[in-house]
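Hello,

Our lab assistant flagged a job as stuck in the queue for most of the afternoon. It eventually completed. Since we weren't sure the result was trustworthy after the delay, we are filing this so someone can double-check. Below is the sequence as submitted and the structure that was eventually returned. Let us know if re-running is recommended.
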Amino acid sequence: SPEPPAPSDALPPPVSEPREPTGSPPMHRVIDGAIQRGQSLVQALSAHGISGRLTHEIAQALRPHLNFRKIRPGATFEATLDETGALHHFLYRASPLEVYEVTREQAEYRVTQHEVPIERRVEKIAGAITSSLFESMEALGEKPELAIRFVDIFVWDFDFNSHAQPGDRFRMLVEKTYSGATFVRYGKILVAEYENRGKTYTGIYFE
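-- returned structure --
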């Protein structure tokens, strides 16, 4: 048999009010940026909305460790502010191998320079000239610096401006330094060869 209807004055079950979880970590704000050409570190921090007081504190902490006249475009930083807007943590990457960390310890700041692991590899680079040596190396993902150094090896034997032509071939073994997967710099060119009109020019590194 059907159950009797609930009395009209029955109250709905109580609904618990949502509460903030206890022990939740404070909210942090992270600001990422990079040094633009012509900018100082202080100007870059200010441009990303970091207050003048914090900018001064960061600069004062880093001053014994950095030459501010040699701040390079492309250097990056990451500032973490706590819930009150005070600096919690600051990371400055002057280069892939030069990284500084600023942390706050009560009323003072501590600066640590990171030891960045590096790996040196010997790589083979080879290709053919299409329009110029520079463009052909760039097409292989290499930087103009490597083409300049390759040309310097043969400066007394071959005139690349006058005699290089499409179809010429080049090969080399070169040292490269990496930090993780990030290329850092070139080392020595150990062996270099350039083939032009059937003639091969060879350079071998020696101390």
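-- support follow-up --
The delay was a queue issue, not a problem with the job. The result is valid. DSSP finds five helices and nine strands in the chain. The radius of gyration is 30 Å.
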